[in-house]
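Risk register update: the risk that structure generation would not scale has been downgraded. Supporting records follow, first protein first.
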Amino acid sequence: MTAFLGIGAAVLLLSVIAVRVSIRLGLPSLLLYLGIGVLLGEAVLGIQFEDADLTRSLGTVALVLILTEGGLTTRWSAVKPALGLGIALSTVSVAVSIGVTGLALHHLLGLDWRTALLWGAVLSSTDAAAVFSVLRGVGVGKRLIGALELESGINDAPVYIAVVLLASSDAITWTTPLLLVYELLAGAAIGVGLGWLGGVALRRAALPSTGLYPLATVAVCLLAYTAGDLAHASGFLAVYTAALVLGNARLPHRSDTLSFAEGLGWIAQIGLFVLLGLYASPERLPEALVPALVAGAVLVLLARPVSVLVAALPFRVPWREQAFISWSGLRGAVPIVFALIPLIQGVPDAGRLVDVVFVLVIVLTIVQGTSLPWLARWLGLVRSGEAREIEVDSSALDELGAELLQVRIQRGSKLHGVYLSELRLPPGATVSLVVREDQGFTPQATTRLQEHDQLLVVCTEHARTATERRIRAVDRAGRFARWKGDAGLP
């Protein structure tokens, strides 16, 4: 047990360092994570791991956490202008991509129709982690970013349903499309409902610790996935929509929740890619190279452009933006996890599909990931002043040497009635925000504090102790705390 814990910690630290390396190399970090997994596997260090069922189960958990992080950190104002296009890309585009890819692979690789469509379904899902690790800093317009963000968050749901249907031995009838529509609509409704209820409950809850709010928020999202799955609806869509609703709600300790979700998302991505690299069998991959290149060419040069064209037609998207969206359909861990479903269900030649998808993900990530910034500039989509987003961090102030203190004025506190100028905080500290009756405003020297006010105090690290003492002293003894000898000690 101790050895496994140490190995896990070492892998996590190495993966965190790999993020910095990938940024310098201009490659998505998933390639390095996969490489770490392969290094640990049977071909190099000799760790044997061939449990497809366990890999699929752990992969599903990781995808749920990644979708949770994606929904919580997605701003509704950013995706709202691209809502129609994003939904079309995640539904209509998926259907067209499956059909075109299946048709081409049936003739080019000699696959039977159902197997060819199954390959098309597995390959049709884009990966949020892969897409946004590359798009960061490209500088294209918000509409494009919003559309791709929605697509990568939503399209896992219809693709998963299609893969399960095509991998089973059940006949596809006229009721199959109705079942698909039900699962998507029910999943979205469950997610929106639980997300709204969760937001209301968290605002009214009085949890004893700040750290419990992020845990409760993530738990609501996981509950949405479970509820969707039990209702035979789309759990993936339920968890994403629940997280989207919660992420745009007025949550207590919102910045802490988002930071926690981001860290959880990183752990899920790292663990998933390392796990998939560990599961891979490098000695079989050369045999999958030719079919992977054929499938990749069909996907990138034919299926993806045609599917984007059909989905974007009602929205009058310029051809330059359509070209960029087509090239931005990066594949990551999702197709590999979905390829394990037919393998577990005993579909003939499913092991070949897993190897093909693994090779294809590596090839497309290298080709598309490294060329995407260049393509954006060549198409004239990079706007001046937007080549890199300004870095805004809502919680971590370590680089600034600053601290954030949150103060709530309780009933009976001597802070009630004190003017801000009388608070006399030490040098290096200031009250930057006052929230009164759910309304925030920037205080002035003449602002008079009241019971139930919440204060946001910004101070330097060196001034933190003195600031806390002064606030405690005034809380107990009022504006003349210094004259009364209260030093504000705990």
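Supporting record for the second protein:
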Amino acid sequence: MGANADSGAAEGEHARLARRRAAVLPSWLGTLYSEPIEIESGSGRHVHDAEGNRYLDFFGGILTTMTGHAVPEVTEAVTEQAGRILHSSTLYLNEPMIELAERVAELSDIEDPRVFFTTSGTEANDTALLLATAYRSSNQILALRNSYHGRSFASLSVTGNRAWSPSSLSPVQTSYVHGSRRRGTVLEGLDDAEFTAACVRDLEDVLDQLHGNVACLIAEPIQGVGGFAAPPDGLFARFKEVLDRHGILWISDEVQTGWGRTGEHFWGWQAHDANGAPDVVTFAKGIGNGLPIAGVVARGEVMDSVSANSISTFGGSPLTAAGALANLEYHRRNDLWGNAHRVGAVLRDELSAAESLPGVGEIRGKGLMLGVELLRPDGSPAPELAAETTEQARSRGLLIGKGGLEGNVLRIAPPLSLTEEEAVEGARILLEALRASGAGE
């Protein structure tokens, strides 16, 4: 059934569900689309809503559905584990968790790695901040402008995107440095080498203004909520030269860039590896393919710097760890990292026609993590155009996201198992949606 399936009864129930949601959930808990959809089932790269409409999923539950919907191997692993035991906590030995930690440590490229599992990327970044501040005995943090690191009190305190930061209160002292966004800043128009040099000077200048210890720099290799803004390759390697001189830790937030999504590397930080690996890497989303599992991998001396007792009730539970193990095995066996590189190039090439549209300012990103920035005729951000394009795409059977500092960037991030045929189909629909939304005028 197509994306315009007609079902009056279903529409009535849909409206009732929306009213029930509004009555019991917070008003600040946003949804996509003027009339939110209920995703009821999925298979591969497609999902179905409660009204029977079928969509090609180019957002993957916010970059979470890494291998695909209803992957049999993952479903079977979860079902089998659920039949034995769902939960025990870190107070007991847990073989799936230990095996998963071994796999993540092996993949991390971090020296003497230790792994701690959490239930979300927010909690993983909270943990990373705890590790860095404990290790360095400092509450001073460096973060990038336009960044997003989660929705907890601590992670919001290092978020450089005002649209997602509801409070000026903070448990840490955060200073923001340049490192990703050029358009609309004093760094606009600089080439990669000039931009990198300017950002390094900015970092050094900020450090000169601070007193005492700085614990860490936390940064996304490609900013997710920030509209897939990315620094030139090698910028964080240059940053690391400065950080190392001061003993400051580097935390790479790989919640959205990890597991080969960029196609070029398994981790986003590996595009900046000339001076070695980060001290801490956080991960989430794709590892669980929808299961609530995330974590931190860090150098042993950093991870073990926490002197207090701690446990995790739910992090690395038998159920989520078993599912994540099956998911990683499916990823490896089907070379989804390589597929992201190959099919991502096809998708990027198919979308190149959009660059000639007056409303499209830039197409950016890597692999299967692409952003389309939309602008008004005067060059200012066009969030209304992004909102209308997502609506037009949905009506044609394609789900995409949006983000950016002003909400004017389309976020395209399908499962890493996307086929070339699906890439071509999705690009065609998106081009139609852009033209229908007014981006071609």
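The chain has a mean pLDDT of 93. On this basis the risk owner (M.S.) recommends closing the item.
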